[in-house]
Amino acid sequence: MTTSRTSSQVELLPPPEDQPLQPYGVTSGRPQPLGATPDAGGVNFSVYSEHATRVDLLLFDHCEDPEPSRVITLHSKDHRSYHFWHCHVAGLTVGQVYAYRMDGPGHTRELGTRFNHRKVLLDPYARANINSRWERIRAVGPEDNVAHSMRSMVVDLESYDWQGDRPLHTPLAETVIYEAHVRGLTASPTSGTTHPGTFSALVEKIPYLQSLGVTAVELLPVFDFDERQVLRTGPDGRPLHNYWGYDPFGFFAPHTGYCTSPHLATHITEFRDMVKALHRAGIEVILDVVFNHTSEGNENGPMISFRGQANEAYYHLWSQDRRHYMDFTGCGNAINANHPVTTKFIVECLEYWVKEHHVDGFRFDLASELSRGAEGYEMDSPPVLWAIELSSVLSESKIIAEPWDGGGLYQVGHFPGKRWAQWNGPFRDDVRRFVRGDEGLVGAVASRIGGSADLFAPQEELPTNSINFITCHDGFTLNDLVSYDRKHNYGNGESDADGSYENYSWNCGEEGPSDSPEIEALRLRQSKNLLAVLLLSRGTPMILAGDEFRNSQGGNNNGYCQDNEISWLDWDQAEKESDLRRFCSGMIALRRHYRAVREPAFFSGRRNHRGLPDVVWHGTKLEQPGWEDTHARVLAFTLAGFDGDPDLHVILNMYHLGLDFEIPQIPGRHWARKVDTALESPEDVLPAGAEARISHRGIYHAQGRSVVVLTSLPDDGGTA
I need a labelling partner for 380 at 20 to 30 A (CA). Which of 74, 110, 231, 263 fits? Predict the structure, then answer.
């Protein structure tokens, strides 16, 4: 038996199958594309659910309304094609606010469904969402939450004027990545931006990014996430929120909190304005995407969208009892990425951001989770990863994997596919240890500098498969790496139990901030050393935003919940530490000028017209690199220049005392100093044409803990 209802009442029983089509211009519509698609006559709605027995489309007159003004019940006879529920509603326009309710089998051990008709669900394909009435706790438990729900919004994708903009397609070998958090980049009052913490504020920092010389910004997650979720209260009494954004629910929607006026449906325009402005400056946009888990958490989490529509398809569930979730992410659930519908969702999402928003590439968080099959085991050929690699729409987009997950998979150097670039964790660890002075690492560091052939060559991959980094959002900043021996995460409210314990850091003699000029000078030099090794290595370098001006998080190496001055960049610091900023910019310019340090191939022994091999390794003595010396802390190498480029000679002295290094002699040429991190600015890195000729032939005295770069120039004063 059914009961009558108003729009504020919830109908729990399915309507009779022979009930006629809904009035008010509602027709069957079409199953593809999924989501809400406006046309000249109205809006087509389509959503996936294999096991739903009832689907209601809720229409709201305004995003702030506690109740829908109209509820349209979809009937399987007229509004269902296989597993897709759909309808077309005439007269609706862009800006329409909507959501769903679904009913079907409840918390079943065998099937794994979790339908609850009392819960209001977002459209997984929504292009924009509104969270002004959202209360997360109301989405947990059996009670109705319509008055406190999030809603989706119909948006216009067609009217924006791109003014000829297209993705830039900068080769990976030419790329220098700048990893940044949209809010953290400009949220501080010191940023001087009009709307701090937004997409539009990032646009105001483009001249700075250009001056630094980076070619791409890699933005921490910009998909809609629940920043209102209070994780816990910190020791100072402040509530701690999900700041980083690695807990999404709206994969097609720019994050509401990064817009200046989301209630006006400006999400799409503001994001596109940012992309277009960055492209005009020659800077690519790479999005950090999270397809390994969602904000819905485990069985005790909220019902937002996926769980209430097709829980059994979207998530990994325990086969013994499908009421419970597998967790390979540490976040309560794991996306079942290789289910056909989920694979479709992920690929269409990525293609959407490329086609509609001109995004240049993606970095996949905990990407190894995407290689797991239905039972959670690693697959040899995961359909979703190959679908991404082989997509014609994504063929020129950068795809970057964090090649591990929270369940123990570690795939650096053997991540499925050929085109995937990979975050190179061994590069980070080996270089950190070497620069802090650990012994016996010269062989490993030589491999990292050469593009990590030991990791990637066996798979017939290239140095450009390696994303080289010293620091990233997850861990110490560069300044903290040289200022702290241990993490200081008490502010996270977890008794300092969170965050990595293996940081390979060194405080240079005193924990934390120091008044000692000697310690501060050493920390500055160590920062230069780390940046120099990063930018002299083959592969694609990535720099963490703020590292170039010694941004600090006070020793916190896990700022995921610190939406405050701990994680926000202090732009006053950028002026105070202009010497390091200048050095970083100079090293990026050096990398751009000398092809030998960014060649997209491993060393092979080929010789230039001067007879020099592409690389020769040394120690303090020529051609004696000390591969077997377990106490070695120095490494030098000569890079041959090809096609008119000069040769380079690099000295890495990580011993605490100065040492004399032999330098090869090249007939008809002399060596000139390009870089010496032991010298004060501006002598530490010299621009093209201003190199300083060395007075002592055959020897260069490198100060303790320093990096030196020499360039060979013709004796006749030419430049080739």
Answer: 110
